[in-house]
Specification:
Structural class: alpha/beta
Protein name: Glycosyltransferase 61 catalytic domain-containing protein
Distance between the termini: 71 Å
Organism: Panicum virgatum (Blackwell switchgrass)
Number of helices: 14
Transmembrane segments: 21-39
Strand content: 15-25%
Shape: elongated
Subcellular location: Golgi apparatus membrane
Domain Glycosyltransferase 61 catalytic: 266-350
Largest sheet: 10 strands, mixed
Length: 448
């Protein structure tokens, strides 16, 4: 015999066979252990997988191991959220989410406001881990999908807050399920038009009809429920904090382009022989640019094709998305209208005109970082006292003009009233021209 099959001197063939037999027992044992561990993994991490004979075995192993499910609540930062995994039961009229343990456990309870800003005033959800499984209400409807419970409340209705507080956090909470998720929504009766406006968005994330929690009298059973929406960064996403797999604002804007069938996925690239297009946002009430025609002419002189339009929050979302996607750059005074930057093609430019009154920190927190995360070039132009209507309406000696810090010390109410609600601007186009040139050069560089 040659090679590895040779019987060595001093060792009997019987002894060799015994060693092979022992090795077989060890290998078999290891294989059984591996099957057990894999079964445990799938039983815990994917409880909503379609039931098969193998799944039933895994469920039996899970039950025999005494798994009671779990509640993990994160109550820090701006938001309160809970992830409830196991035998989870919801009661809409009671606005409650209950984890039913497989065996006797410790009773625990959390009160969660299902909105991304903790201080928003709306009804809380009672999240309870039962002590006695026998105390659980029976299931009226059993769902195979996980669920996300959130409220249309707080500042919903303001276009920026719709995105920053609800739509972006909802994308983060539910995208991992690839449409196999049910939305449990409270507070619908106060803002029924919200669901109409964002119907396509919600349908892009879930294949199932939403459930109106306030009107739902049935006890529903889910394998997993996320209670509340998490906001880790204003109007943006922190990829490493996303459950499941990392997501970014670039993923969010790509989702919007898919949802609303937006044709342009790159700024200026399809305009090799045409001027880049710039949208100047018109505001109809306050925080207006008083010399819009002059600013538009300055942008045209810089090399843009310019349109002036008012972007109203009550407009159809798909129609507005397509309109904005046709532009390469957006210019506007600080406000909710700049939220439309989510529809600009990547590589586009957002130019924010910041009102007078040391408003840079607020303005940049809401748009600078988010725009960069979307893959846009962000620029801002700070209005001087001479360009502000406050100089004329209040006079140069008024604290709002002479000492903005004193207004900020007096609280947000005064800041909003003076610098946001009562201020218009007249842009110095000579001073503004370099900003327009920088925006244009950024776009033209992408054609090279």
């Amino acid at each position: 015999m040659g090679g590895g099959g040779e019987v060595k001197p001093g060792k009997s063939q019987k002894g060799s066979a015994q060693r092979h037999l022992n090795a077989g027992f060890v290998a078999g044992g290891l294989l059984m252990l591996l099957v057990y561990l894999v079964a445990q993994h799938f039983a815990v991490s994917a409880p909503h997988v379609v039931i098969t004979e193998a799944q039933e075995v895994m469920d039996n192993i899970k039950a025999q191991a005494g798994k009671n499910g779990k509640v993990e609540c994160k109550m820090e930062g701006r938001s309160d959220t809970c992830e409830v995994d196991g035998d989870v039961r919801t009661n809409g009229t009671a606005l409650s989410v209950t984890l039913v343990p497989a065996t006797w456990s410790e009773r625990r309870e959390w009160m969660i406001r299902p909105y991304s800003r903790r201080f928003a005033s709306l009804r809380k959800v009672a999240v309870t881990q039962l002590q006695d499984p026998a105390a659980a209400p029976p299931c009226a409807v059993t769902h195979s999908t996980p669920a996300v419970l959130f409220a249309i409340g707080g500042y919903a209705g303001n276009y920026w807050h719709d995105y920053a507080d609800i739509l972006v956090p909802l994308f983060v909470a539910s995208r991992r399920y690839g449409g196999e998720v049910t939305f449990l929504i409270s507070n619908i009766r106060f803002r029924p038009q919200w669901l109409v406006k964002y119907k396509a968005f919600l349908r892009g994330l879930s294949r199932y009809e939403h459930i109106d929690m306030d009107a739902d009298e049935q006890v529903r059973c889910f394998p997993h429920v996320t209670v509340g929406l998490r906001l880790d960064k204003e109007f943006s996403i922190v990829p490493e904090l996303v459950p499941g797999a990392p997501l970014s604002m670039a993923d969010f804007t790509a989702f919007l382009r898919e949802t609303y069938a937006l044709p342009r996925g790159a700024a200026a690239a399809d305009r090799k022989t045409k001027k880049p297009r710039l949208l100047l946002i018109h505001r109809g009430h306050y925080r207006r640019i008083l010399n819009e025609p002059e600013v538009a002419r300055a942008a045209e002189a810089a090399g843009f094709e310019v349109a002036v339009a008012e972007l109203r929050g009550e407009a159809g979302e798909a129609e507005q998305a397509r309109a904005v996607n046709a532009f390469d750059a957006v210019v506007g005074l600080h406000g909710a209208g700049l939220t439309n930057a989510v529809f600009l093609p990547p590589g586009g430019v957002l130019v924010q005109v910041v009102p007078y009154g040391k408003m840079e920190h607020i303005a940049r927190a809401e748009f600078a970082g988010p725009a960069a995360d979307m893959g846009l070039r962000y620029l801002d132009y700070s209005v001087s006292a001479e360009e502000s209507s406050l100089m004329e309406t209040l006079g140069p000696e008024h604290p709002a003009v002479r000492d903005p810090d004193s207004v900020h010390r007096s609280g947000w109410g005064q800041v909003f009233e003076l610098y946001l609600a009562k201020q218009n601007v007249r842009i110095n186009v000579t001073r503004f021209a370099p900003m327009l040139q920088e925006a244009l050069h950024h776009l033209l560089r992408q054609r090279q």
